[in-house]
Amino acid sequence: MKKLFVILFLALVPLTGVAAQGKTQALPRQQITTLVGDFSGTNGFEVVRVGRLTMGLVKTIVRKAVRESGDQDSAELLSLLNGIRSVSVVDFEDASPEARERFSRRLDRMLDGVDLLMEAKDDGEDMRLFGVVDEAGDKLTDFIVWSPSECKLICLYGSMSMRKLSRFLQN
C-alpha cells in the first residue's frame, strides 16, 4: 500500500496543472469532520485526530530534533508538511459491513463534485486522491486519501507546496 501511495504521488504532480484549470469545489471539511465524529464511537472504527495545537507542538519538537540530527531527508519532509494544520485518520476495517457501507456512502456523497486528482486500482484495492489545487498549480490544499476497499481515510488539512512535494518524491 505504501509503494502504491508513493507511485500515485509521483503520477499526481504532472496532473495538478490539469486539475487547476477547472473550477474546483472546496473540500467539505466541516462535513467530513462531523462524519468522522459521528462514527468515532462506532465499534470497529479507529479514529486519530491531530488538531492545530497538537500539530504545532509536534512540528516544534520534530523541528528541534531535525536541527540537532542534521538529517536532510527529515528536514525536507518537515518543510513539506509545514503547511499542514490538522490530520484525521480513520481505519474501519474491523467495523460491521453495514457500518462500513454507511460511512462509505456518506463520504462518497460529500466528495461528489470535489476534484478527484487521481484514482488507482490494483489487485482489488482502490485508492482515490482528492484535493484542491490553486490556479497556478503551485499549492495543494486539503488533501484526502480515501481507500474504500482498505477501509481507510486520511485527511490532511492545510496546504503543501507542489514544488516541495515533487522534490521530496524525486529523492
Spell out the key features of this protein.
alpha+beta; 28% strand; 6 strands; globular; six-stranded antiparallel β-sheet; 171 residues
Q: Would you list the SSEs in sequence order as H and E?
A: HHEHHEHEEEEH
Distance from N terminus to C terminus (CA atoms, Å) equals: 19 Å
Major sheet details: 6 strands, antiparallel
Q: Please state the overall shape, judged from the principal axes of the Cα atoms.
A: globular
The beta-strand count equals: 6
Over all CA atoms, what is the radius of gyration? Answer: 16 Å
How many domains would you count in the coordinates? 1
Low-pLDDT regions: 4-8, 13-23
Strand order of the largest sheet: 1-2-6-5-4-3
Mean pLDDT: 83
Question: How much β-strand is present in the residues?
Answer: 25-35%
Total DSSP helices: 6
How helical, in percent, are the residues?
Answer: 40-55%
> Helix/strand-derived class?
alpha+beta
Description:
The protein has 171 residues and is α+β, with helices and mostly antiparallel strands. It has one domain (2-49, 89-162). Helices cover 48% and strands 28% of the residues. It has six helices and six strands, in the order H-H-E-H-H-E-H-E-E-E-E-H. Strands 1-2-6-5-4-3 form a six-stranded antiparallel beta sheet, sandwiched between helices. The radius of gyration is 16 Å and the shape is globular. Residues 4-8 and 13-23 have low confidence and may be disordered.
